[in-house]
Design goal:
This protein is elongated. It is built from 5 helices and no strands. The protein is an all-alpha fold.
Length: 78
């Protein structure tokens, strides 16, 4: 086991110049798969429902305290 560990430490790693531009070009060449589409749809749906909740609360909150006679402490607890 020790000889294997020593041989692994003595192995040389090839000198590869990987720049950001090279990585971006490689990513651009990769095909879009069903996994990418599925993950994009899940993230899009989560973003939509999060924004929908915020919009609904921002529209309803000014009306509710007047109709339900809520004080500021009760509004913050909602």
């Amino acid at each position: 086991m020790l000889s294997y560990a020593l041989s692994m430490t003595q192995m040389s790693v090839p000198d590869i110049d990987v720049s950001a531009q090279t990585l971006i070009m490689r990513l651009e060449r990769l095909p879009v798969t069903s996994w990418h589409v599925r993950s994009r749809m899940i993230v899009g749906a989560a973003t939509f429902f999060d924004a929908f909740d915020v919009l609904t609360i921002s529209i309803a909150l000014p009306v509710l305290p007047v109709q339900w006679r809520l004080n500021p402490g009760e509004i913050g607890a909602q």
